[in-house]
Fold this protein.
Amino acid sequence: MQPLRFLKTAILLLFVLVFVVWTLFPIAWMVLSSFKPNNALFAFPPKFIFTPTGDHYAGLFTGSSNFAGYIQNSVIAAVSSTVISIILGTAAGYGLARSHFRGKADLSFWIISTRMAPIAAVILPLYLFYSKLHLLNTLLGLVIAYLTFSLPFAIWLMNAFFVDLPIALEEAAKVDGASKWQSFVHIVLPLSAPGVVTTAILCFIFAWNDYAFATTFGGPGSQTIPIAAAQLMTQSGIDWGKLMAIGTVTVLPMIFFGMAVRRWLVRGLTLGAVK
Amino acid sequence: MKTEPHRPAALPYASDPERPVPDVRRKGDAPLRRYRFEFMMMLPALLLLAAISLFPFVYLIWMSLNTVSLAGGLGFTFVGLDNWLQLFSDPQVGQSWKISLIYFACTVGTELVLGIVVALALHALHFGRHLVLSLVLMPIFIAPSIAGLLGYFLVDPVYGFYGWVLRTLGIFSGNLLGTASSAMPTLILIDVWQWTPLIILIVSAGLASLPEDVMEAAKIDGATYFQRLFRIVLPLLAPIILIALLIRSMDAIRFFDAIALTTNGGPADTTKVVAIRLYETAFRFFHLGYAAAIGLTMLIFTIVIAKVFLRALSGRELTN
Amino acid sequence: MNKHPNRRDFLRLTGASLAGAALYGTFGARRAWADQLGDDKVWKQCSGVTLNFISENTPPSSAIAANLQPFQDLTGIKLNLTQLQLGDVTQKVALDIGSQQGFWHVIYADPYQILAPYYQGLMDLNEFVHDNTLPQVPKGVDDFIPTQLDADGRFLDKKALYTLPYDCPTLIWIYRKDLFEKYQAKMQQALGFDPTPSGERTWEQYYQIADWFNKNAKSDVPFGTGHQARQYDSLMADYTSVLLAYGGDYFNNGQELGLYGTKTPGKCLVTSPEAIEATKFYKKLIAIAHPGSTSWDWDGVAKAFEAGQIAMMPEWHEYAAEFEHSNLKGKVGYSILPRGPKRSANLYGGTGNGINKFAKEKERRAAWLFLVWSTSPAAQLEDLKSKVGGGTPTRQSVYDLPEARAAMEQDSDMPNLLAAKYALEAWKPENIGLRPKISTWNECDTVIFTEVSKMLTAGQSPENTCTAMQRQIDKINKAG
């Protein structure tokens, strides 16, 4: 019995190990490659040992590439759309959680269906609107585009958090003479902080990672980091070194943010359907 | 975690008889007056959402009934159902749907099976579970466009690491993304790499919240691991798995960044999913009306899938 | 030291050319006008304007992006340069012109994807050429290589000029000189002809050379040939060079269509016996090429070449700079592409810059200043030396400079000229390969590279490929 059990554990461990390697290797390779000098980057067979260089990172911030500008655009677009979504989404999520009316289910479904709409289908009408409203090539255009998915996401998710919040405290506040608004601000909001933070981070990550909207609506004043990455695929070559550096710079903060809310991540990523 | 949260409790559309609702509705008290504060709270968000999603939706329908031209200013020529008739007789769009469905079934299917297996394996581990879970989550946070480019870099036959491994092992010496038979499987693997962790995360949460007493009772009854797995664990996890399925399905149709940046539909159109075809029709050929019709079919497909899943979910909830 | 021409360089070269041009009467008068105004005033007349330039990420634009200062110093114009992939450029330009907004003032107008469908949104540059108050094109527009000027700048009307030639990548035969020298005798003996690349070789011989490398030189290079045969524009370019060499073409009167375009291309001819012959050959050729070929665009095949994976390839001549800066320095040879039964056809991929008709008056004038400056001999000479750029000139006079002549023969700080020597050959009317300039090219192009890709990777027969192309192209052009 004992050896069999040992064998089982060994197989189990091996399986998990293989999966971890499969999952982490590409990320490790990306980070590693971002420090490789070009001759090591394209070496055959691939090299693990090399003299690291910061050239690719330095190249991002000097010369023709305006990477700092891209970061700024990405941050502005992602933060603005997140802040707007959180403010409106928290209010609406609360309103939805505490009210009952006929058609509520349909309303809820409509909200979430906008979050699920295929990006390619959303882009089309927005593109024509934008051309009429002169919103192409502007950051405002991008912020609005991001709202099309982050706002319904925020409403739905915050609603899920509020539904789970015991109503007793609000009722007690009511007895004490507080208005609905007062009890929302002073009692409900502080309790829902984890929900707000999780929702905000997820909204931010989705906007930060967007490529489709940015490539369609973006212009010289509104190009974001994923566009910068795609632009390294030029007519005269893909600058893989810089691309890996951009990847690393883009991904690491998101991984950090993601880990910070890991406890609530399941709720966020399942739109609040799972605790 | 508490004892019963595997139940999808927080789906607001599914009215929950157990949950206390503040001051149960009284006759003659219209919700509009009763919930004025709540409605005011909802109003700004709903107005904005309507402006940026409902309005474009109606516009999309209108576009699909017109020939939209760009030259000499935006022009609409009403053509009735022409675009729709063309759509249903267009073998290329049909082919793209086939490819999309294959992509959709393979990615979601693989991710689901692999995700559940890994989650069960992690659950059986007695140490390091949280560490491993944290590590394998990382791909979720990577931009799909970057994940696609990273995959492209890794499988290159000249300087890609995976390309080198495959060649050295004598398995394959061409480019995985440049060969008709392997391009789609490679894209599927890139998606599987990125999104299996999500399934692991969700299923792990479900496993952690399984009622201990039931499990113990089953063990005492002498049920084997697989008996317990198929008779107790998986049925209990069903609602959560459905949710995972729903989320992944939506996103599998939703995103096309990785494909756009790697194969963009090639080789030989073997990876031209509907979203790529739509993008090409709209922004390369500028048949905007026709593209709108394609977009609407995608939207309808998404909504139907969502409805089906959500219904299955509510059904589950009632029988539990 | 600036990488890009500073004002003094520019005026020196421009001044010299203007002095030469003074032989022509009109130029003399214009020169006087310019003197009166003072060079500074002429160039500073749009000071304060912000100019949006949208370009494919092409070498001359990268060189300009690396150093915007000289143009800003010369003109006081602020230049916003946006570099994208061609598909994205097309999309943004199409909408901008369609909505008549004039957001993009200077447009990198690909002759096929932008000029042909949207020429009505571009200025006829003759208006600026004949404007005495504006700086003139140094040496006049006739200094541009004639086939380039027509292919890049004209559509339908042989007088109207929509763009000034800006870049000029052209498919030529690039090979490993070291390997060809090493195996020359052996190959000659085995194959019965001198394998040294030149316009005298045939495509059939190209195939035999590739095959010989595959079988006899594995220790030096795994594959004889590599191609940019990914389902993309690159595949169309690679395939079209063979198609034209065999005497096939997409439409009747192809060369004329390539130079001046048409609105009514008529019936597609890609099922002609010559075209089918070419298509059969192309399939046969790619079958023995490096298996990575079907996933490579021009860059992928270049990287494979640099990595020593292939001995030769059809490739854009501007890649010479990259190769001469790599560990292959001095080991690379260049030639025009092999002949088919008809001729050697070297597909031309150049593009000119045009001015958006819907831009404001001041912006259009500013755009003209940029056009003149960016295609000036001084700018093109600097581009040749640029580390980030490395495009080649579109003007005859730059190639005629002694400095340039010397660089075509030996290693210098302008490595692209090693290849340009052959590109000059390729641009001759009898050697240049041109796509049809038609407004539906985007769709036809997609059909071509999709169907050829199906042939290469999914087993479609050459005959069926040609028939499928013809059927779809005729449908697109409504020429049943």
